[in-house]
Amino acid sequence: MMQVQMELVIVIPARMGATRFPGKPLADLAGKPMVQWVVEAARGAQITERIIVATPDPEIVEVVEALGAEAMLTRHDHATGTDRIAEVAERVDAEIFVNVQGDEPLMRSESIRALVQPMLADSSIQMASVYCHCEPSELDQAAVVKVVTDLAGDALYFSRHAIPFERQARVIPVKKHLGLYAYRREALMAFAGWPMGDLETAESLEQLRFMEHGIRIRMSEVPPSELAVDTPEQADEVRRILAARAAQVP
Q: What's the CA gap between 97 and 116, in Å, rounded?
C-alpha cells in the first residue's frame, strides 16, 4: 500500500435515478453490479482502507454492504456528485477526499494512485484530477471534456469544445479530462457553499466552480480510460470489453 501521511478517504457517489440510465449502479456487468467493479478498482489502488459508497438509495446500500463494503445514505437533492461527497465530508473526519465516480466500471487502480500523488507530495495543492490524450474521433464530442494546462500542470480551463482551438495545424495533442478528483477538506466544504457560477452553468462542468473561485486543479496524465457508462448501450459495450478480457485469461 502507498504510504499515506494523512487520513484519506475514497468516496464513490452512486444513485439509481440517472436520467439516461435509471438503476445503472446495479446494472449487471459480467456477473457483478457496476458499483462492485468501481469498489474493486478503488480497493486495488491501495491508498486507503476506507472506501465509502455515497448514495441516496437504500437498495444500493444493501448491495454494497452485502459486498462487505461501506455505504452511507445521503440526501436525494444534491445537484452534483461533488455536493454528495461534501455531505460525506460533514460526517467523516479526513484531510483528502477522492471522488471515484460510480459509473466508471473500467477505472484503472493506477489512475487513482496517480491522482493523489501530487497532493501527498505538496500540501499546498487543494485539488487534483487527471487527463489522457483525446482521440481524434472524440474531439467534436460534447460528452468528452477537454482541458488545457499551464507549465506547472495546473488546469487553465475545461471545455466541451476541443481546446486549444486549431487556428493552424495542430501541434499539441488535445487533453481529455477524466472524471476523477481529489479535494482537500477545506476546498470541498467551500464548494458546497458557493452558488453555481457562469462558467459552470455554460459548460455544465462542476469543476469550473472551483476554478471560478480561484482553486487550482493539478492535473496528472494517466493511461486512456476505456469507457464510462451513461447509457444502456455503453453498458453493453462494457460487457463486451469484460468478456474479451475474460477470454484472454488462461
A: 10
pLDDT at residue 5, rounded to an integer? 40
**Domains of the chain: total:** 1
Q: What is the pTM of this model?
A: 0.92
158 lies in some domain: no
**pLDDT digits 0-9 by tens, 206-216:** 999 999 999 99
Strands 8-13 and 96-100: parallel
Q: Considering the chain, what is the average pLDDT of its residues?
A: 93
For 33-76, write each residue's pLDDT tens digit: 999 999 999 999 999 999 999 999 999 999 999 999 999 999 99
User: From CA 239, how far away is CA 34, in angstroms rounded?
Assistant: 10
Tell whether 162 is covered by a domain: no
Residue 201 lies in a domain: yes
In a domain? residue 137: no
- Cβ atoms of 59 and 73 within 8 Å: the answer is no
Identify the sign of the CA torsion 110, 114, 119, 120: positive
3-state DSSP assignment of residue 216: coil
Q: Please state, in angstroms and as integers, the Cα–Cα distance from residue 50 to each residue in 7, 12, 23, 39, 92, following that order.
A: 9, 11, 25, 11, 11
Report the C-alpha gap between 177 and 180 in whole angstroms: 9
CA–CA distances in Å: residue 162 to residues 145, 146, 200, 207, 209: 8, 6, 17, 17, 20
Backbone angles phi, psi at 22, to 5 degrees: -55, 135
Range of the domain at 191: 8-129+176-248
CATH of the domain at 77: 3.90.550.10
